[in-house]
Amino acid sequence: MLTPRRIEIFKAIVDEYIRTAEPVGSKTLQTKYKLPYSSATIRNDMQVLEEMGYLEKTHTSSGRIPSTLGYKFYCENLLKNSSVDKRMEVAIKNAFEMTNLNINEAVEQSCRILSEMTNMTTGAIGPDSSAQCLEHLRLFPIDERNAVVVMITNTGHTETKNFRFDADVPVKDLESCTDILNQHLKGVPITELAVRMEDLRPELAAVVQRHDLLFAAFVQAFVRFASENVYFSGKDRMLYQPEFEDITKLKELMTMLDDSSVWRNIGTDKRALVTTAKGAELTWFNDVAIVRSTFRVNDSETGQLMVVGPSRMNYDQVVGMLGYVAQMIEKMYRKAGGG
Question: Would the pTM of this model clear 0.85, i.e. be above it?
Answer without folding.
Answer: no
